[in-house]
Amino acid sequence: MPKARSLDEIRTALESCYAQFEALCAGLSDDDWEVRSLCPDWNVREVVKHVSSIEAVMAGWLPDDDKTPPPFERAAEFLAGTDDNAVLVDKVHEVYDRRRADLSTLTEADLDRPSWMPVGPGTYGRFLAIRVFDFWVHERDITTALGRPTEDTGIAAELALAEVEGSIGYIAGKKVGLPDGKSLTFRLTGPIARDINVAVDGRAKQVDHLDNPDATLVTDSTTFIQLACGRIDPQAQIDSGAVRWHGDGELGERAARNLRFTM
Fold it and tell me: Which CATH fold would you assign to the domain 167-257?
């Protein structure tokens, strides 16, 4: 599980996500809204509707326990009329301003509140970190499809990567099928540069350091996250050189092709 984040980190990350989506929406042409995103079956408009309707659901809401979900009926209220692009953009601004107001009064204690989450019971702070992940991935569902650049550093990117890194034992053990006694390094060259190391001793788990991993997969952090989310084709990344490996060739290729753990 990713480490708990501070109130300042959560607030900064979400405010960055809101600003990025507002700027993105402001620059979309009528044709852009209809472009198919990287998220299956959704065009750009549907992606914006999705992330923003969840924020509408969460506006003004704080959890009292880890079993009661937020008021999802508010999503329908937000979505009314949003097939009109201008209406959608106005509603996006409105709901993000409401969420900014929520964040301005949030306390560290609020982050520790028990909360329903889409992945099971947790805390409100953890739920908000998942919201950052959702925003970050969905922004690139749009921008990659449109050929637009993105800012892939900063706290929002760190939180998005942390969601994948927090599941790296599962990814390596269950999806890649890393055998017992074997080890694997994911070498991220940037924009967020780091080594993520996994070794199997009965079960796959992340370790701080590997002197001599059996295989090393090399890619950038954005490609790594998008592959883990099933958004882009592994073969295309291999062919372009965006993903490569050394050491055990069979193990490296298996890792390159089997990072997907969520959609």
Answer: Nonspecific Lipid-transfer Protein; Chain A (3.30.1050)
